[in-house]
Every structure is written in structure tokens, then in C-alpha cells.
Amino acid sequence: MANSKNPSSQSKLIAITGPTGVGKTTFINLVTGSSLKVGTSLQSCTDKIQVARCIMGGELITLIDTPGFDDTFKSQADVLKDIADFLEQTYEKGRKLTGVIYMHRISDFRVGGIARENFRLFTKICGDDAMKNVIIVTTMWEDVPEDVGERRERELSSKPIFFKDAIDNGARMMRLRHDHISAENAIIPFLRRAPEALLMQRELVDQRKQLPNTAAGIELRSELEEQKKRHRKEMQELRRDRDDAMAKKDAVHREEMRTIQDEYEKLQNQLRTVQEELRRLKSKDRTQKPKGKYSLTRAGGMIPSNDGSTKVIYVTRYRRGSGCLSGDGFEL
């Protein structure tokens, strides 16, 4: 149960991460009684970093709602840059994250390549040393039979292609039910945890690396290069099929040729997207330090950083039982 007596003066920073539609914003609203915007489709509502605060167990908690790498409106490179800017600035102010929650839908029939790649990026941002401050929270239990969810949970925790390596390095798994108590229980383990610098923070600040040269930047670049190779190979195969269809010059093969051409153009667009992603990632030069500050406004509005990049929202709505604050603004 949240407690508003004698909170610590400095808040514990807890980042909430995971793919679009997993329930990150809903989770924060359950914990704090806030009203951050929640998506009702696969389009992302968290295209900027949002923040809500509450008091729990006598500790001031700041929950940070981050965009997923499968964000509807932003490229992976741009999402990574937003996260990197936020982590860098907080670390330069002497702040470290007390915990990170990674959310995963237990209702997913299978964990596809994109989901696995997103989790690999997440682990590269955190690093092995910070895994002891990570909780993998599974959501959507109400959408699957209990035995099915338990079977998937065992598979996720026992296979290296999923969460096993993270768990071996100290991460733990928890289930989230759709209620306030269950959401609070996912936060309680962090109340007595010591903050830990993430690998990306040490790379950007202590080691002065540029974003493309961080572990996460290298991982994303490698995945994009693999996508580019796959697209080019598929396009080469389609060109051969198209040439064969053109040589036969009958009605059936003309229709086949149109289908092949449509597929070819689709792949061309995908390839252009990947090439643009790579270009954007390689352009994230850290020699120009971001000058903006992440600050929060009392009225629940938005304040852009000085360079017009990431914005944050300060949520002032609260439910009495949660102890969510509505104070005079906040600066990390």
C-alpha cells in the first residue's frame, strides 16, 4: 500500500520499458492513479518520455514511461537517441536508475524476431551489471488460460533466446494482474535497492563514446545491416522470377509478373527504410552535447528541451490512496 509519510527527499527513478501495446502506460496509471494517455490500438501513444510520481513505503518514486523500439511514428534510431539523451543527462546530474521494468505480453502466441531483437537492445542498454535491478513483468494474464501462461513463462525463463541470460545475470520475472495491488508489488522490490548506472550511461558519459559505438548502437547497426542483406537477397530472387515471367509472355505469367513487381516494390521500400535507419543511426554524433534539460511542469503540460528534442510530462492528477504528488514541478 502506498504511504505518504516522510518520503525521502530524492526520488527513486524507475524506467518502464517494453514494446508498443504491452501495457506500460496502464501499469504506471495503476501504480500512481495518474492519467497518462493510453493506446487503444497498436499505434504508440508514448512517442516521448512521460513521467509520473508517487510515494510508496515512505519513498518518493518517479516512474519513467519510455517509447518502445517498435514505436509507430519513430525509427529505432530515433527512439534509441531519445533514450540515450535522457539517460545521459540524468547520469550527468548524478542520478542513476534504481530499477528498470521490462514488460512482455504473456498472451503473445510466439515471440518473433522483432521482439527478441528489441529485448537484445534492452539488455545492451542495461548491461550485465545492472541486471540485478531489472524485473521482467509479464502482462495480459487475463487473456490466456493459466496453464498456457505458465507454460509460456517457463519457456521464456529457460531459453537463452528469450530471458534466460538476463535472469542468470540477476533479473527476475513477475506477473502483473490488472489491479493496483499487483502493480504496486512490481515496484516494492526496488524500494530498498541501491541505484545502479546502466551500461549505456557509463559508455556515453564515463567513456565518452558516440551513440553508434555503444553496445546498443552496435547491436542496432548489426541488426539493420542483416535486414539490408535479407532484403537485397529477396529482391535478387524476385528479379529472376520476374525475368522468367516476362520471357513466357502469356496471360498467366503476365499476372504473375504484376504480383512479383508489387512484391519487388514493397521490398524496395523496406530496403530504403532500413538504409535510412542506418544513416540516422550513424549520424547520432555525441560530440555535440545536448544542451536541453528534462524538466517537468506542475500543470501537467509539456516543456520541450532547449534544443527542441525530447519532452516530458508531469502528471498532477492523483488518487488519494496512491499518494501521487501534485507539487511545484520537478527537475531530474
TrEMBL record:
Keyword Hydrolase in annotation: yes
Alphabetical UniProt keywords: Hydrolase
GO molecular function: GTP binding; hydrolase activity
Keyword Coiled coil recorded: no
Record domain G: where: 14-96
InterPro entries assigned to the protein according to its UniProt record, in alphabetical order: GTP-bd, P-loop_NTPase
Annotated spans, Disordered: 226-254, 280-302
One Pfam family matching this protein: MMR_HSR1
Protein's name according to its UniProt entry: p-loop containing nucleoside triphosphate hydrolase protein
Source species: Laetiporus sulphureus 93-53
